Amino acid sequence: AGEDRPIAEAYRQDHRLPNQNRIESDRVKENRGAFPDPDAGPVMPFKEDDQDNDEPQQKKEEDNLVLAPPQELPGEMGKAVVLPTNLTEAVKKMVDDGWLKNAFNQYASDMISVHRSLPDPRDEWCKEPDRYLTNLPKTSVIICFHNEAWSVLLRTVHSVFDRSPPELIHEVILVDDFSDMDHLKTQLEEYWANEPKVKIVRAPKRLGLIRARLLGYDYATGPVLTYLDSHCECTTGWLEPLLDRIARNSTTVVCPVIDVIDDTTLAYLYHDSTGVNVGGFDWNLQFNWHAIPNHEKKRHKNTAEPVWSPTMAGGLFSIDREFFKKLGTYDEGFDIWGGENLELSFKTWMCGGTLEIVPCSHVGHIFRKRSPYKWRSGINVLRRNSVRLAEVWLDEYSQYYYQRIGNDKGDFGDISDRRSLRNNLGCKSFRWYLDNIYPELFIPGEAVANGEMRNMGYGGKTCLDSAARKSDLHKPAGLYPCHRQGGNQFWLYSKAGEIRRDEACLDYSGQEVILYPCHGSKGNQYWDYDSVKKLIRHGSSDKCLGIDAAKKKLIMERCDPNLDHQKWNMENYDR
Ligand code: UD2
Ligand code: MN
């Protein structure tokens, strides 16, 4: 806690200053030269006897803070903060601690003003006169957090106030999901004491992000609800285009474009509207991003127009409060993290709404590579949430998810309320959703074979094996002893001749046999399985797929039905 103190002090000062661009925290000043010594204790910045300064003598009026042109401050205009390589051991430790606690570079964040300036990522189209209705509804902004870094949380909230028309912010509700970090427990009320629109709600026990959002919902009184993660930064004009869509049709659920705030440098990274993606999911019920499909592109004249999206990422969206209520908000049985974004996406579409990504609205988010906080022990939370989701919303398509988890549903609790919700709302079928809203999703049931792909050479114990994650794409596909548990050994052989899982297809272009994003145009991804000879012949090279036991890798050879290591058994083959 001792370490938090000077930072907290700096931000309190920061907040009080009238001119956003004239802020310099103690951290910032010290860091222009050497890095601060963590053992130095809570030193107030620029004390009266501070002789070491080349700044103008305006300290008294300005709460002892010093004027500096904005371009000198770290992170301004969304620029990267790059720490020098010659850090002292003590500072290195602070940097490491920041990473450990948050899974992003908290130290770098602490150097940046909580009011930092950002680039304006909007297309010109967004700024044309009369683009938005004039009488927009107000929103309650709901930000849930569990042990969020102080500077990051404050920057999220300030970015809302600093870059929204005040008359559109009904309130900002901060939901503390039972954090145990000192600054969050003791300093928030004081920090926001002069901002009547900020309301702080404390969960009596750890709720998980879904029930924390519901707690925020219970307190919110604005006609529109806007949810944000606690490590976001809103850019200029982010709010109006979201509210505009809801004002025109209250069943439209809208998401901003989520820009990347780099986890290491806190740089604000963005594309123009030609780089906008939409949300999808795979049969592991994991959310993923896609380029806008052609059928959707055809509906638009300008790339900045709102686009329909099959799913939302989850953290950042606005919704009409009454419509959210009508949809039954979230499933309260969802714990900690995950699945709620697909639940809300599916039911929005299936129960009469529309889900859009609004390219004129940009909000940054720190994407992390791991989850820094505790989940529950002894239970697979994500699987439980996903099974509840599948049971209520997926109809007969739930089998494709269950296949992926070895048909082990575990104890998923009572879902009868959620099922009656769906019935009472008279929602459409999941099949309707797939056919109309997400026609580009590959349906495993349409595959000719599914399950393991076992090579018959060397005793027949080797299977095609890969996690087939994004990071595995463009790399050789692997081999592993067959384990009969699905997972990384679950493959589909599609009618179109692909050997695939989700978006990854087995692909050969003359070098290694790799996994490559499925492109659907045969070529290097076309494999012809002869279920009698057991050979897998590659379309464009006319070679056959085999394995090299010594090198433990896939190889391509001239086809020879006498070689066992070219023979494969495809599970559940049915043509
Ligand atoms: C994404 C979403 C996130 C949520 C999640 C699926 C974006 C950018 N983020 O993961 O909002 O939809 O997918 O569930 O779309 N939190 C709590 N209590 C907890 C755990 C988390 O309040 O027990 C807070 C946390 O401080 C954060 C928010 O919930 O503000 C989301 O958590 P996250 O940032 O770890 O999720 P993320 O972005 O990886
Ligand atoms: Mn997040």
UniProtKB/TrEMBL annotation:
The keyword Transcription does not apply. One of its GO terms (molecular function) is metal ion binding. It is found in: Golgi apparatus membrane. Residues 10-32 have a biased composition (Basic and acidic residues). It is a single-pass type II membrane protein. It catalyses: L-threonyl-[protein] + UDP-N-acetyl-alpha-D-galactosamine = a 3-O-[N-acetyl-alpha-D-galactosaminyl]-L-threonyl-[protein] + UDP + H(+); L-seryl-[protein] + UDP-N-acetyl-alpha-D-galactosamine = a 3-O-[N-acetyl-alpha-D-galactosaminyl]-L-seryl-[protein] + UDP + H(+). Its cofactor is Mn(2+). Pfam families: Glycos_transf_2, Ricin_B_lectin. InterPro entries: GalNAc-T (IPR045885), Glyco_trans_2-like (IPR001173), Nucleotide-diphossugar_trans (IPR029044), Ricin_B-like_lectins (IPR035992), Ricin_B_lectin (IPR000772). GO terms for cellular component: Golgi membrane. Its EC number is 2.4.1.-. Keywords: Disulfide bond, Glycoprotein, Glycosyltransferase, Golgi apparatus, Lectin, Manganese, Membrane, Metal-binding, Signal-anchor, Transferase, Transmembrane, Transmembrane helix. This is Polypeptide N-acetylgalactosaminyltransferase. It comes from Rhynchophorus ferrugineus (Red palm weevil).
